[in-house]
Structure formats: C-alpha cells, structure tokens
Amino acid sequence: APHGLRDLHAPGYVRAYAYDQDEIDEVITELAQQILMPRLPPKGLSQEELRALKPWEGPRHFVLIDDVQDLRPAQSYPQKPPVGAALWKLMERARQVGLHVFSTRNSANWATMPMDPWVKSQTSAKVAQLYMDN
C-alpha cells in the first residue's frame, strides 16, 4: 500500500527525498545555489532588457514539505539559519527560475502562524496559500 511522498520513485521525477533536518537543509540549499540561482537574470539589466526576458522554459522543480512547522528554526549555537531558508528569496522569483513550493503545516497555534518563518516568507513572496482544517 502507498505510504505518501516516500513512494514517489519514478526515474527522473524525484531528485531527492530527505527526512532528517540537516539533510533537508542540504538538499534545499544545493537546489537553491547550484540549480535555481544561476537561472536568475544578471543584475544591472535595463528596463528594456527586463521587459525582453522570457518566462522560464526549462525543467521545473517542485519542493514538497510536509509538516513545515517541525523544521528547525534559526539556531544561535552553533549558528545555523532556519531549515530551508535558502529558498525564501527564490520564492519571490519562482516564475523566473521554475520553482514551485508546496508546504503543509499543523493548524494548531493558529494565532502564531504569522510569526512562522515559512509563512512569513511565503506571504512576502505572494505565494498562494491554502488553509484547511483537518
């Protein structure tokens, strides 16, 4: 019987599957730095050059994060950013780099959600958000 995301295994469709905090962060950071950031247009383009940019037409990357509230927040000692922070700025430019991010979280502590770093970054990037009660 299928067990969710871990049963996705079609060749060429799953780049990585991670469930350990550090491994999740490594996979996301590698995706951001080695694949997505090089897709960004160079800095200093004129308005005409920016208008002439075409939408991303290459491979797209879908990042699925279940229970995002369980990811490690910023850590002061040893200093580490929150897990997945490498994607936050890229979510603002997702259409330019072929990025799609889907995250789920527990709706407990609803009042504190605006303070959650993932929710804040998705709101800042104007990412569509769907809230469902289970």
Structural summary, described in words:
The protein is α+β, with helices and mostly antiparallel strands. The protein has a single domain (15-124), classed as P-loop containing nucleotide triphosphate hydrolases (Rossmann fold, 3-Layer(aba) Sandwich), CATH 3.40.50.300. 28% of the residues lie in helices and 10% in strands. The chain is built from 5 helices and 4 strands, in the order H-H-E-E-E-H-H-E-H. The strands form 2 sheets. Strands 1-4 form a two-stranded parallel ribbon. Strands 2-3 form a two-stranded antiparallel sheet. Strand 2 (75-76) and strand 3 form a beta hairpin. It starts with 20 loop residues before the first helix and ends in a 10-residue tail after the last helix. The model has no long low-confidence stretch (mean pLDDT 87).
